[in-house]
Amino acid sequence: MSHFQLALLLGMTVALGPLALDAYLPAFPDIAEGFGIPHADVGLTLSAYVATLGLAQLVGGPLSDRYGRKLILFVGLTIFAIAAMMIAGADTLAELVGWRIVQGIGGAFCAVSVPAIVRDQVGGQEAARLFGLIGLIMFIAPAAAPSLGALMLALGDWHWIFVFLAGYALLLAVVLQIALFPRLKPRPQASTPVKTLVTNYMLVLRHGTTMRFIGIQVMCFSTMLLFITHSSFIYQEWFGLSNASFSMLFAANIGLMAVLNLVNRPLLRRVPSVILLRVQVMLQFLMLVGLVTVVILDGPFWAVALFIIGAIGCQGGIVPNNMANALEFFPHLGGTAAAMLGASQFTLAGGISALSSALGGDALLPIVLSMLVCSAGAVVLAAGAPAAIAREKARAETLA
């Protein structure tokens, strides 16, 4: 199977996550009005999904190492589809949050399988290029998701958004069964018994270089998730934009991600991925410094929007480079390492997002300051990443 074909199918799979996160963002005001709750409370449904998406990967990753990627991925798609249909019929916020938690379990089993499949096939700079290609393909989903949600709202109501998600998950299962798994290189099942899962996780936790990249992922993803959680408030309530304008601005973030992803791919042939990572983390931080400055000075809307697009767009280069480095040192425990990465990313970022919602996202400055603080943490970790990689490779050569 060519890299493009593999990336296309895995990109379609990864797209399930952005669709579940972003498609219903334009419906936040309608959901709040329908349930008679504050707008900020609807953000709890997003935080609950993201937090579960992280925690459940701790189970799904090792299970995929032991029982295979296909079984765990298909179980995840089934759970996701059933939960989506139940959400479509929810009558209260409690029901909506509860089924979003269940949906997060299904989404986690899907999400953790993709990087593990990539690590099964390739490593090093090649893995970074493949992750980049997957990201480029899957950018279609978050770019189109708010527009899709707005279309559903125009045709009916927010319930139809989740009916669509259920249908997409079922269609994806059929496509993967026909086009992906019969063409992958056979992978021997892990012989590690379930009772040693804690030991496997300890191997990852004790690997300082890997944990550095996991920390970078957590901080950068937290920056983005804070924006996603409050994006409807920022654009629709604070600045009073329409659903269509909100969708266009949200798509602009994804457009810049795609551009930086395209720029990153040829650079990987000449520059180590860890160096590119450090540069792009710093660029994101500078964009957020500009954003905070504009907000403090009560600057114009166009300046706020440009700095947000610049900061969030940097994820297009950060994610593929960081994931490749984080998984590099665990070729035989790809599922476990991917689970630790995903669990840390979604759980901690989800907690930060939930805290920001609980404290009340009714002002712009605290939101952008929180994004800046998370980005600063990523800068600190990324600064020493090249040296950490060099030390780890030297140690591996000495042991060899």
Automatic annotation (TrEMBL):
It is found in: Cell inner membrane; Cell membrane. It is a multi-pass membrane protein. One of its GO terms (cellular component) is plasma membrane. Its main location: membrane. The chain crosses the membrane at residues 46-64, 71-90, 96-118, 130-154, 160-181, 213-235, 241-263, 275-296, 302-321, 333-355, 367-390. Signal peptide: none annotated. Residues 1-393 form the Major facilitator superfamily (MFS) profile domain. It comes from the Bacteria. Keywords: Cell inner membrane, Cell membrane, Membrane, Transmembrane, Transmembrane helix, Transport. GO terms for biological process: xenobiotic detoxification by transmembrane export across the plasma membrane. Gene3D superfamilies: Multidrug resistance protein D. GO terms for molecular function: xenobiotic transmembrane transporter activity. Belongs to the major facilitator superfamily. Bcr/CmlA family. This is Bcr/CflA family efflux transporter.
